[in-house]
Write a structure and sequence with these properties.
With about 280 residues, the chain is an alpha+beta fold. It is about 30% helix and about 15% strand. About 45% of the residues are buried.
């Protein structure tokens, strides 16, 4: 089992897409609909931050919240201390400074908020949602968040940039941004589903592929980055934690996908994209 890091964001967005397809949530719902009542309206010039903007990184939220660096931060496990009260505390004092939906700005915090909102809406933990809503229906039996029993036994040792062993990461309230652990076989199942293989999640998967933002440097679906090479379009996402790197990409038209999982902190996305471009 490997930490897949930010590839987790595509799972979080798929959970959202599944709720939208079922009619229980809307992409354009303001995020305040699903936040505690004591958090002020998160708007800019009357325009609210929406669920879609959390999924496509156009919310205006920073990459990481300023208050994550306060208190005791363990550099070996830098998110562990950031519990839900800290996530909400940041939102209570946050003042949007850019029109939501207009600028792509990658945000681990935004994806973490989305995961937290889904937990609140469905009254289940992020791990329970991932396992019951995505993994079990797809037969992904070795994909999880916590490391218990067999997962701990089969967990690969990660290594940092210097080749030193690293500890597993605990993403606390930001689980939606990067907490999943998985295996190569499970991630191949996941990628085949993205390529259109019949599954109970087909409608939600297709929704997650639809462009929701088009910028000069980056276009986005829900969670997925969208890139073009020549006349060909492919979707992809990479991930990284203290001792792991990951890449998932696929070209639906050509029915071709790439999965790379590494237990070393050496980037692999260039390798994955090179396959897709060729």
């Amino acid at each position: 089992m490997f930490e897949i890091g930010s590839v987790t964001k595509t799972f979080t967005s798929l959970l959202l897409a599944k709720e939208v397809v079922a009619g229980r949530m809307k992409l354009d719902d303001p995020i305040n609909f699903y936040l505690p009542d004591d958090i002020p309206g998160l708007t800019y010039q009357g325009h609210p931050i929406t669920l879609k903007q959390l999924a496509n990184h156009t919310s205006g939220f920073p990459r990481l919240p300023a208050n994550i660096f306060k208190g005791k931060v363990d550099p070996q496990d830098p998110y562990k201390h950031y519990l839900a009260d800290s996530l909400y505390a940041f939102l209570k004092h946050y003042k949007p400074s850019v029109m939501p939906g207009t600028v792509f700005s990658y945000s681990n915090y935004g994806a973490g908020v989305l995961g937290t909102l889904l937990e609140r809406k469905q009254q289940h933990s992020f791990e329970q949602l991932i396992v019951t809503e995505i993994c079990k229906p797809l037969g992904m039996d070795h994909t999880t968040v916590s490391l218990n029993g067999p997962a701990q036994k089969n967990f690969a040792q990660g290594y940092n940039e210097k080749g030193q062993p690293t500890a597993p990461w605990d993403l606390a309230s930001l689980k939606g941004s990067g907490a999943i652990r998985s295996t190569l076989n499970d991630m191949i199942i996941y990628t085949r589903v993205q390529l259109g293989i019949n599954s109970p999640l087909k409608k939600a998967v297709l929704l997650s592929h639809q462009p929701t933002f088009k910028g000069k440097e980056q276009s986005m679906g829900l969670g997925w980055r969208i890139s073009t090479t020549g006349k060909s379009t492919y979707l992809h996402h990479s991930g990284g934690t203290g001792g792991f790197r990951s890449f998932v990409g696929f070209n639906p038209a050509k029915q071709f996908g790439v999965v790379i999982l590494s237990n070393a902190a050496e980037e692999v996305s260039a390798i994955g994209e090179a396959f897709l471009k060729k």
